[in-house]
Amino acid sequence: MIDIHCHILNGIDDGARDIETSVHMCRIAEQNGIKHIVATPHTNTVDNIERFIEARDERLHTLRKQVEMRGIKVNLYPGAEVYVDDDVFFSNNLKRLAINGSKYILVEFSFRESKISKIHSYLNEITNMGLVPIIAHPERYELFQFDYDAINDLARKGAIFQINASSLASMDGPQEFELAYSMAYNGVASFIGTDAHSVHHRPNNLMEMIRFFPPDISQFNMQMMVHDSAKCVLTDKELPFVNRGEIYKRGF
User: Fold this and answer.
1) Residues 202 and 209: beta-carbon distance below 8 Å
2) Contact between residue 67 and residue 35 where contact means Cβ atoms under 8 Å apart
3) Which of 187, 164, 221, 212 is nearest to 40 (CA)?
4) Where does the pLDDT of residue 252 fall: very low under 50, low under 70, confident under 90, or very high at 90 and above?
5) What does pTM read for this prediction?
6) Would you give the DSSP letter of residue 88?
């Protein structure tokens, strides 16, 4: 399996606090069948990209050495979780933040002030740069939790989404679960990531979490979300075709 969203690098954001935590997370990944991890530390400004990349790559290099020394069979790749706001209109080097040198870039927005018109503008701007934005954990946004049609509209326009394993395993709130489940069941989510920050807070024990996923999600969709789509990102290829269905909010 491939974890496309993980805060595994130490001392760079709110993820792993030290190198031992990073190594421990790599061991957990190996034990849970994760063979490839994209390190996606937060970056909140687009005017300090070079400094961010220097810090990220230094820690990534150190962790790779530690993993090799300890015989942990996990491959690590560079990436970022890019916070996108109006500054994106003044950035000309977001390509440097793409996953493993590909055209794919993991993005997030403000949880409090996101408006669908703004999100469309941001995605269009990123696409015009020749990049393919992956929207991280859409199920965590109140905007989407109460307006499933906003997700449908973005999907019709080609948006791709990564949902969190913890959301699909009902380890977050019920609104997060309902949206993540609907997206996974209907093929709207292209990726499942752990979004792990430590060995305790939202850990990367993916195999254990999969045991709590709803059983009616097809094996085809699961294979796409935990491996096939992410493999295309790492190798900079087009994502496999998936017949997406419309999602809807269930009534209770």
Assistant:
1) no
2) no
3) 164
4) very low
5) 0.96
6) G
